[in-house]
Amino acid sequence: MIWGRGGTGVRRMVAGTLLWLAAAGAHATQTLDVLHWWTSLSERQAANSLAGALATEQLAWRDAAIPGGAGVGAFKVLKSRVLSGHAPDVAQLIGPTIGDWAQLGLLLELDDVADDQDWQDRFFPTIWKLSRYSQHVVAVPVGIHRINNLYYRPEVFAEFGLLPPRNWAEFERVAAQLQRAGITPLAQSGEPWQVATLFETLLLSETGPAFYRRLFRLRDPADWQDIRVRRALERLRSLKRWMPQPVAQRSWDEMARGFARGDAAMWVMGDWARGELNSLGLEVDRHFGCTTVPGTAGMHLYSVDTFAMLSGGYVKLRQQEAFARLAASVPVQLAYNRIKGSVPVRRDIDPAQLDPCSRQSWQTFGRGDAVQAPSIVHRMATDEAMKDAIIAQVYRYFSEDQIPAPEVQRRLAAISRALK
Asked: What are phi and psi of 93, to 5 degrees?
């Protein structure tokens, strides 16, 4: 059961019960078990900032961090814990999966907190919509990630008189010059989700936000046969010649450390990479530059970090609501996102407090649906089955050069038809 506004009396009754429970066992009711997948250096620091905010309310963050890029392992652990009757109090959930869990009646509603803090007016419209299911708030958003970022090494570009590429023709010229000088032009991991992350930026570059969203909102199999999808696939394969050979499967934070060492001149990755580079002691516009993937200027390929509260008998109601209230507040939003590399979900913050790369991300996202594109890989665009199928097909195409792009398009169309 999910409580709505009509259940306020029941909520207050339970809150009163919680006060009695607090007196009987304060330690048990003052701890929140938080399941997430933040395990890199910057992610741990960002999680610690949230834990520190909780501590001001005399609440302890009991960490349940599950390693694994893109949350693959964490989702499996969450399902296992819920099925075994040991659900965490708070869990990192993102995108359409929030609605899936809410539909099962497993999530606590946060309507009272949202009303008290005026989330509807304070959050960007896309964020407000994402936080709700069946007219009720069921998740607290903490940060917006931009994925179509191109990082580059300013000292290398300056040495060769290069400018960050704005389109793919410029990228090819820059990459060729760097390669002739013995510098690896483009960093890339062979992990399937990282390959697919690169692909979705190329797909956005070729199609623009409107057609990109159409692929998932309408799920018309014929759209996957579009020439723009083919060009994105072919560009993915052509970029391999600028990558280190072989393309090894390295975690994204290993890739960040390699980029910091100077292993490559450019890297396409979500802005969690900026948070990691900052945590390694690098500064944006000094040690590394940040721009958009060629052909995506003015577009925002996004993922949103969100937490949901598992109902779990409602014995942690007060603590869970305190978590939501703190996580959405302006001071915590600014502190957390500054570490994480993402930007606040609120539209009432002062952009002067953001670094230039973050400011551009926040302002671009604020232009609304016309420039926004939800990430496939990072669970914003579609359900788990479709996401996993796309990643598998893209990775196979990237790994096996004999597979033609039209064949992948046919497979993606068939998958879209089957899962529609």
From this structure: -130, 145
